[in-house]
Specification:
The complex is a heterodimer of chains A (about 325) and B (about 325). Chain A has twelve helices and 14 strands. Chain A is α/β, with parallel strands linked by helices and about 325 residues long. Chain A has a seven-stranded mixed sheet with strand order 3-2-4-5-7-6-12, sandwiched between helices. Chain B has helices at about 10-35, 50-55, 75-80, 85-90, 125-135, 155-165, 185-190, 215-230, 260-265, 270-280, 285-310, and strands at about 65, 145-150, 170-180, 180, 185, 205-210, 235-240. In chain B, the strands form two sheets. Chain B has a five-stranded parallel sheet, sandwiched between helices. A two-stranded antiparallel sheet of chain B has the order 4-5. In chain B, strand 6, helix 8 (about 215-230) and strand 7 form a beta-alpha-beta unit. The N and C termini of chain B lie far apart (about 50 Å). The interface of A and B includes residues 25, 67 and 102 of A.
Chain lengths: ~325, ~325
């Protein structure tokens, strides 16, 4: 198995799907001639040409809507947002058209479109360029929302997203593009809606997804040395949510910490916390603890910036609180 | 100057017939609304029939497409959607064109290439542009007619879409139906210009302002616009029209004068076209009466069909959400 970056894994997924299906196109700012702002689409323009890898002007609402119309009419567009911060410009098209078109047409339309790009806190970018948007999208019925935490998952999930006949929000954490991981040569698909137990354990469940998964794994290693055996559940897919894997793990360990980069108020984390309290209440030995970003816009100052986000230290403290130690 | 002898008489009759059908259908819908059989917003198209009929009559709906906004009844009927399924949709019945989940603002027919019905002002403009992208991508011989009101022309989605359509040379004809009022606001109060067709120049397209109360003028202008759009340059048409009713059924329309309304009623697109056809011996008064009776019956039958159709089963609540 080769070791490649997340960036390369995503590129391979798009390349393989574009080679497989001529209806798959890629569009967005700088995706073609510039080879991608984050170089995820590097080489695709040379390989597939300007007809299939399309540079757009800086018009998120417009090109998101164009992608939706093209998807309704039979193409399978991948729409790259240079960052998901800019996707808020396209929020109307994503929420009011992509998500609802099938329902409000009585099931006549499929909208096979993937909206993808970097998401989540980055570094030194302040509040408009550094935020986790998953909760905004996860709220909307009709969308699927996916956030991989490893290159392996990223490739398999992106291929699934491109083949999906529903609109998929595919969130790539900005700082993860250069992270490396094992990715097999042979083709594989990871079904959307299946969580993955990244580490088995018996004392406590930590639930996370996307970039914080790395901090969770580091925390688990440290806790292991202290004699605390952690089970790590990686959601991978936020909507649909794999409730079964979550609940089975909590029923086994009886304790849970949820780590989420989004803000705490009505968030992915708070929803999962509610789910556990509702469906596994009798199994809990302690209240579920959340480790989220602080409830503030992201500050520029690095010390404040780091303090605003989940960290290994915060995760360990939360675990100990839930363990009553 | 339009010379009526240049038109096939069957086409002329068809144009008149479709306009009457829209008028009678909507009158029936308004009546049902008064009886609380239909709820929500009901944005009537009465007075504007010449725009949808004049333009869509140029299309072959097996290869061309229509995207409309929330005042979509006229476009749907002009595009050949079944009046029964449209009325049933207004009644929220399972037999409706969108299974009762869309209502007045969300008429859809995938097979007939009718891509909405969109309730967000301007949101259909990028979508229509995307349909144009698909036509070009697959090298098909088709065109998209995209309708929006004078209110939507100020939206960013309009600007973004026309720019994209031009840089990619997409076969889209953008049709601004200027009925003078964005809800209760006179377009002259909120628009820097009073001839929207000149906005085409900003995108290196051709634009034209037409009399939207004249079905033949709309027909001819759209025909020309479609040719240009298919040859690779999208087109912007502005049809100056007028709605005889309020913005929706809840709007008494007090922001305009009786004199102004009366003036436009004198230009009723159906009455004036009917008189033109009689004058030129294309139809007789009796032909018109017969046509009108036929349309009234279709509207009445549609209401009966809607009335007698079943409600969606409660388990429909969770269907059609995902594929």
């Amino acid at each position: 198995m080769s070791i490649i970056t997340m960036r390369e894994a995503l590129r391979q997924a798009m390349d393989e799907e574009m080679a497989r299906d001529k209806n798959v196109i890629l569009m967005g700012e700088e995706v073609a001639q510039y080879n991608g702002a984050y170089k995820v689409s590097q080489g695709l323009y040379d390989k597939y040409g300007e007809k299939r890898v399309i540079d757009t002007p800086i018009t998120e609402n417009g090109f998101a809507g164009v992608g939706i119309g093209a998807a309704m009419a039979g193409l399978r567009p991948i729409v790259e947002f240079m960052t998901f911060n800019f996707a808020l410009q396209a929020f109307d098209q994503i929420v009011n058209n992509a998500a609802k078109m099938r329902y409000m047409s009585g099931g006549q339309f499929k909208v096979p479109i993937v909206f993808r790009g970097p998401n989540g806190p980055a570094e030194f970018l302040s509040s408009q360029h550094s935020q986790a948007t998953q909760t905004f999208f996860a709220h909307v019925p009709g969308l699927k929302v996916v956030a991989p935490g490893t290159p392996y998952d990223a490739k398999g999930l992106l291929k699934a997203a491109i083949r999906d006949d529903n609109p998929v929000i595919f969130l790539e954490s900005e700082l993860m593009y250069s992270w490396e991981g094992e990715v097999p040569e042979e083709e594989y698909i990871i079904d959307i809606g299946k969580a993955d137990v990244k580490k088995e354990g018996s004392d406590i469940t930590i639930i996370s997804y996307s970039k914080p998964l790395r901090y969770v794994m580091e925390s688990a290693e440290i806790l292991e040395k202290e004699g605390i055996n952690v089970e790590v559940v990686d959601l991978r897919s936020i909507r649909p949510l794999d409730e079964e894997t979550i609940l089975n793990s909590v029923k086994k360990t009886n304790r849970c910490v949820i780590v989420d980069e989004s803000w705490p108020f009505v968030s992915v984390a708070s929803h999962v916390g509610w789910l556990i309290s509702y469906k596994a209440f009798d199994y809990l030995d302690a209240p579920v603890e959340l480790v989220t970003s602080e409830d503030v816009p992201m500050p520029y100052n690095h010390k404040l910036e780091l303090a605003a986000q989940p960290s290994v230290d915060k995760i360990i403290k939360a675990v100990k609180k839930v363990m009553y130690i | 100057m339009i010379n009526i002898k240049n038109y096939d008489s069957n086409l002329l009759k068809e144009l008149l017939y479709k306009m009457i059908l829209i008028r009678r259908f909507e009158e029936k819908a308004a009546q049902a609304y008064g009886l609380k059989k239909i709820g929500g917003f009901l944005h009537l198209y009465i007075g504007e029939e010449a725009v949808a009929v004049g333009s869509i009559s140029n299309l072959d709906m097996t290869k061309d497409y229509v995207a409309a906004a929330y005042r979509d009844h006229g476009h749907a009927l002009a595009a050949g959607l079944d009046p029964n399924s449209l009325m049933a949709e207004l009644y929220g019945k399972i037999t409706g064109c969108s299974k009762g989940k869309g209502g007045s603002m969300h008429f859809f027919d995938y097979e007939k290439h009718f891509f909405g019905g969109n309730g967000i002002v301007g949101a259909q403009i990028p979508v229509a542009t995307g349909i144009g992208l698909k036509i070009k991508y697959n090298e098909e011989d088709g065109v998209v007619l995209c309708y929006f009101g004078d209110g939507a022309i100020h939206q960013g989605s309009f600007h973004e879409s026309l720019n994209l359509a031009k840089i990619w040379n997409l076969p889209v004809v953008y049709i601004c139906e200027n009925n003078h009022y964005g809800m209760g606001t006179d377009f002259r109060r909120v628009s820097a210009i009073d001839d929207f067709s000149i906005m085409a120049e900003s995108y290196a397209m051709k634009g034209k302002q037409v009399n939207g109360m004249d079905v033949l003028e709309v027909y001819d202008a759209t025909k020309e616009a479609i040719e240009v759009a298919k040859s690779g340059t999208p087109y912007l048409l502005e049809a100056k029209t007028y709605r005889f009713k309020g913005h929706s059924m809840s709007d008494p329309g007090k922001y305009r004068t009786k004199e102004e309304l009366e003036l436009y009623k004198q230009k009723d697109p159906i009455v004036s076209f009917k008189e033109l056809l009689i004058e030129h011996n294309v139809i007789t008064e009796d032909d018109y009466i017969e046509m009108d009776k036929r349309c009234k019956k279709i509207a009445k039958d549609a209401a009966k069909f809607a009335e007698e159709s079943p409600e969606p089963d409660l388990n429909e609540l969770y269907t059609d959400l995902y594929v």
